[in-house]
Model the fold of this input.
Amino acid sequence: MNSLNELQIPNVQCSQYLIDGEITNWIGPSAEVFSNIYLSKNKEGKLGPTLIGNVPDLDEDVSIKALDAAVNAFSRGQGKWPTMKVKERISCMETFVKIMATKREEIVELLMWEIGKNTTDAAKEFDRTVEYIYDTIEAYKKLDRKSAKFDTEGNIRAHIRRGPLGVILCLGPYNYPLNETFSLLIPALIMGNTAIFKPAKLGVLLITPLLEAFKEAFPPGVVNILFGRGRKIASPIMKTGKIDVLALIGHSSSAVALQDLHPNKNRLRLILGLEAKNPGIVLKDADMGLTIKECVSGTLSYNGQRCTALKVLFVHEDVVDDFITKFSKAVDKLKFGLPWEDGSFLTPLPEVQKPEYIKALIQDATSKGAKVMNKKGGEMSANYCYPAILYPVNEDMDLFHEEQFGPVIPIVSFKDIDQPLNAMASSDYGQQVSLFGQDVKQLGPLIDTLANLVCRVNLNSSCQRGPDVYPFTGRKNSAVGTLSVFDALRSFSIRTFVASKDNEYNNKILQDLLNSNHSNFINTEYLL
Ligand code: G3H
Done:
């Protein structure tokens, strides 16, 4: 797809949802889905968002039906899914991922239209998700192999496994509507939990090609997929108190509001990936070429709409002028274009109100003494704002504190390393940092401190979540729980075991249980 003439505007008419293994037609209001890519004209003849489909706008009754289906499928731990043999659950997951792989083209295209992700990143998101599912299957086999044994301590024999937690409400973010949502849903399911899943506010249509795959692969009620507004759907579900885990990647305001609705606070487990304000710290001996390259991708990949994006740059005063000159040049060279156009790095922003928000941040900073340092910085169109580099930024400006989640980059110069360290210590967030420099005498103690302020110190490298086998978490308001292929399996399960006094009577019963295959929990089957 390269020219306007060749463009196929999607028209996804979805009137269905998945509950209890049934794909049901919704006879009720639907919600139009718009792309913030401007190709069509409105009544006044102005270009505006493009209509690309619609989805059901489901209501509270349906959401409670979905909850009931998930609760029944778990069935107080007696359900088919939570008691199933591990290898059978794995086989369901394999069926799912095989069908999912056939939907690549459709989903990648919808990623571009719905959230404006460029072709390369959209394809990467899809492929990374498929790989994540296969890696999860392998990690689960490994985990299960470790549990295929009995322990004896004192005179107590124990068979210890990880068991599911129950019913999960799963909500993902718009910037990775497939990958991040599935990085919650997939481990939750494979560990034997049942789930209700509502796609993010943007990036909704791309889930519709997968309804059949979920229906086909999993027993009824294990995965229930709803479309509609969070307030109408998620809130009534939380109020019942029947949710065991809130798995959410998004904004802490939603996470807090949903937790507050749950009547049994200690029952509710949380797996949350929230805001961050990852700093880049540029020391005076940093390799400038490498630093600029990493800071460009760190601040502006997907227009800065990544929780791991570099959102403030602290640059040593001796090199700040050189840094700004070179960084501005590099940023002004970035190509803006439609997601499918060759070489588009910057793309339209999917949130309608984002350009205005970015503009307000720029105005606030400039009214307090900062300047836009790059020539193209702040150039606005209705659905975009060209990345603006702001300098000098200080604590009085909103941009210093707020997670901008978009194309605007604050630069703060420092003389004393305590300045960025103090800012990080007093920040509400603590996900990652990028540290640029080479003198080990300075780097060594700094790394020791930074590792205690955040959860990943990226040395001469931009911040990122991947590879997905590495732990992804954060301190303070940035996260609850840890997600990696391996950690997610732990996060969505709990250690549970069968213990018995070590005597002839019990040992015979255990042996009979092992021989009989009556229990899927007590077995020492070894998965290859
Ligand atoms: O939005 C936050 C994502 O987890 C970032 O992932 O670092 O791979 O872009 P990424």
Notes: Residues 30 and 56 are 4 Å apart (CA to CA).
